[in-house]
Structures are given as C-alpha cells and as structure tokens.
C-alpha cells in the first residue's frame, strides 16, 4: 500500500514522518512531500482562498502531483484535493484530512469516485476550547486593552465596560454549537460557576449542567455568546443583524470557529453603535486584516490572528491519530470518521 502525505508549515515534514512512522512499521510505504510556502502568513492566505472557493481555488505544483497515480491514499492537512487531483490519482481509495474540517477536499466528487474521505475530529478541540476561555477573560476583564496601554506608557483604568466589568460566576454563557469543542468549553465554564445554555439541532444527548434551547432564547438570555458551530451553507451568517439585535446590551460575542458564521459587517456596526457590549474574535473575512478595516478602530473588541487551534500538541497529534485510524481499519475495525459515507477497504 502506498500513501502520499503532504506536509505544510504547520505540520512540517519531520512531524509528518514521526506521526506516521507506525504505518511504516507495518509495511506501508509512506512518502512525504511538502506544500511549500515562504511563511505561515502565505499559507493562511491560501487557506482563506480555499475556505471561500473550495479546493478548486488553489492549484498544486507539478512536483506534488508527480506519479500521483501510484498512491492508494493521500493524507493532507490544508493542501487542496480537487477534482483534477482525484482524476489524476487513478488508484486512490482514501483521502485523510488531519483536522475536523474538509473544506479543502472535493468531498462529493470523491464519493462519486468511490473514494472515502476521513477527517480527524477533535484533533485541536482542546486547543480551541482553552483559547476560547482566554478570549472570554481577555475581553470581559480588559486584559488585552490594559496590556496594549501599558506597552504604550499609559496606565489605563477606563474601559468601554468599566461600569459593568463582570465575574463569570453565575453569569449565563450561551454556546452556539455543542460538539466536542463546545462540550469542552462547557466543562471549563462549569468550573467558573457559569449557567450554560447551548443551541445545537444535531446534539441529542444530555450534558449535566447545560440547558439545551433554541437560538433566539439563547441570544436573549446570555451574558456571553460563544460560537462553536461548523460552517456550512445553512450556518453561513448564522449570527447576523437580527441575531445581534436579540442580544443583551452588555453581552459579549466570542468567535473562535469560522468567520463566515458571523456577519462581520453587522457585528462591526453593532459594536460601533454599542448595541452589544463587546466581542472577541479570532477569525475574519479577510486575513490578514486590511489596514483600513473598521474592526481595527473599535475599542470594545479583542482580536487575535486566527490562532485558536495552533498548538504544538494539536499539530503533532494529528498524524498519529490518522495512523491509528488506518491501522484500526487494517485490523478489521470499521468505526472510522468517514465523512462521505464511502465504505473503505484497504486490502493491500
């Protein structure tokens, strides 16, 4: 069995090699090629193009596609697997994605070609959940604003929420999306003594200390609203002008998920007009943020450079998790995270 693994600036070649070495120990041929970018910023630019236009938005170099028809499986993190890629990889049986999202894969076309697409759910869930707590605390307690002021020789004590700086204890936090990340955040919030609401039409379980409700009820009753949904056509601009108008005047919006889940222009307008108290955002419609973007002029927002899921542990664990899934399949287990419903059989 031949596997092509495409590394990048976040999961470099050595990390990919180390993570997949257990496959080599079982006689599987693994070749690692690098999707080269001069910097992480350049890679993120391509990622944004792919998020907005799909895998057809970026064309891979011929070096990465050399002899592609000899491989039975390809493993990527951010590199796009387009229809053209799939057509060239004539012996491809599976595509492995080293993260939860599969925006960089032509998933439906892969299904047409009877190629299974596996993702790696939860690989950076803890990273994002921990970062979300950092965003919440930084915004409501003015940590970032105070840091910036002190670095500029200003002992600042007056903030947009000076008359309403809260403790988290007994505050209501609404989680929009209640998958693994949302559940981890809920666990952290419980330790802070928060009341927790959650909206997720796909969640059918029962989580102690969390009240499931509809989106409007959540927005109207939450002091903090944190977004953890998956971006789809149905969830695009899930939070827009109408939803923001339902939130409390002193409430705070947190987004460490995807920019498309929130109407950024509507959010900026709501913040400018003080319709909500504040926001903390890690994802943006245009990355890096343009110098003339109004969001940079706001004082009642904490912004970070799309870094919630970027920890060493998250990146290094991803290839190991994928290797474990592949070996499980070879050992006869079939409970794999296949996202397009194609039954995968690797019998090489």
Account of the protein in words:
There is one protein chain. The chain is an alpha/beta fold and 348 residues long. The chain has 2 domains: 2-123 and 311-330, NAD(P)-binding Rossmann-like Domain (Rossmann fold), CATH 3.40.50.720; 125-303, NAD(P)-binding Rossmann-like Domain (Rossmann fold, 3-Layer(aba) Sandwich), CATH 3.40.50. Helices cover 34% and strands 15% of the residues. It is built from 13 helices and 12 strands. A 7-stranded parallel β-sheet has the order 8-7-6-9-10-11-12, sandwiched between helices. Helix 5 links the parallel strand 3 and strand 4. Helix 7 packs across helix 9. The chain is globular. The termini are close together. The model has no long low-confidence stretch (mean pLDDT 94). Belongs to the D-isomer specific 2-hydroxyacid dehydrogenase family. Keywords: NAD, Oxidoreductase. This is 2-hydroxyacid dehydrogenase.
